């Protein structure tokens, strides 16, 4: 059966929204911390675009190359800070920007450190491998929210796992969609608004669902919640986040149903 015009329009909107998100970037101006400067004059800041869906550890090699002539010898874990707050490396760049900049600044001025990793605040990071491991865990959580288990992700072939990670690392939406359709996690597919032919009882009811009824699409959403001590008329009036104790997150499904039961 051909898709209704309304369904085709919604699918087009969904695809366009995904392309805008994947193509989005935050302009960054990265300064080398004074304690890491070993040559005069100090190096100029590094200007780059940070993909909104990307992660700071994936930018380290490029940033390190820019500051290489001024860095002290030896190797340590690289980390970033904004106004004295160490940035959590496993949170996407776009989420960090939205969370920490109530009044967005462009470019976003950050400080990079090549020494003194704040292990009491940030979890250990071994570069890209740590980011990849964290991403895979988040993918399993998303799969569980959508389907009730994470088998589709855990049963992915090594080749598909690598291809999916490369698509995220490179910001390649087309490659990502090619892989996500295999494991049926994408919210853009008809699969997630499927017609049920089984006669399962509805939750809280002894009456079975009629054949052809619609299961809702469950979109996994991670909500970051900030605790503010004072009453505010406008969120923009809140003082900047100064510690991670005031920020937490929860994972919840957002259910989407087709209108009119079709």
UniProtKB/TrEMBL annotation:
CC annotations in GO: Atg12-Atg5-Atg16 complex; autophagosome; mitochondria-associated endoplasmic reticulum membrane contact site; phagophore; phagophore assembly site membrane
Source organism: Triticum turgidum subsp. durum
A Pfam family it matches: ATG5_UblA
Any GO BP annotation: autophagy of mitochondrion
Domain Autophagy protein ATG5 alpha-helical bundle region residue range list: 128-184
Record domain Autophagy protein ATG5 UblA: where: 21-114
Top-level taxon: Eukaryota
Family to which the UniProt record says this protein belongs: Belongs to the ATG5 family.
Keywords from the UniProt entry: Autophagy, Isopeptide bond, Ubl conjugation
One Gene Ontology MF term: Atg8-family ligase activity
Protein name per the record: Autophagy protein 5
């Amino acid at each position: 059966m051909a898709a209704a015009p309304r369904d085709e329009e919604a699918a087009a909107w969904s695809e366009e929204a995904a392309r805008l998100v994947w193509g989005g970037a935050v302009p960054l101006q990265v300064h080398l911390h004074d304690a890491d400067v070993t040559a005069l004059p100090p190096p100029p800041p590094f200007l780059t675009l940070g993909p909104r869906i990307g992660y700071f550890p994936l930018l380290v090699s490029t940033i390190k190359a820019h500051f290489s002539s001024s860095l002290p010898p030896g190797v340590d874990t690289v980390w970033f800070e904004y106004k004295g707050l160490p940035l959590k490396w496993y949170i996407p760049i776009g989420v960090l920007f939205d969370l920490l900049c109530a009044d967005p600044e462009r470019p976003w001025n950050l400080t990079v450190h090549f020494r003194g990793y704040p292990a009491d605040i940030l979890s250990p990071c071994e570069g890209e491998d740590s980011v990849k491991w964290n991403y895979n865990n988040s993918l399993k959580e998303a799969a569980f929210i959508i389907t009730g288990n994470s088998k589709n992700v855990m049963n992915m072939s090594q080749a598909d796992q690598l291809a999916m990670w490369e698509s995220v690392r490179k910001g390649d939406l087309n490659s990502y969609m090619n892989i996500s359709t295999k494991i049926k996690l994408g919210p853009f597919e008809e699969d997630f608004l499927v017609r049920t032919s089984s006669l399962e009882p509805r939750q809280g009811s002894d009456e079975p669902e009629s054949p052809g009824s619609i299961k809702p699409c469950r979109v996994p959403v991670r909500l970051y919640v900030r605790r503010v001590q004072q009453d505010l008329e406008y969120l923009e009036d809140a003082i900047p986040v100064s510690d991670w104790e005031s920020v937490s997150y929860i994972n919840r499904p957002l259910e989407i149903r087709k209108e009119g039961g079709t």
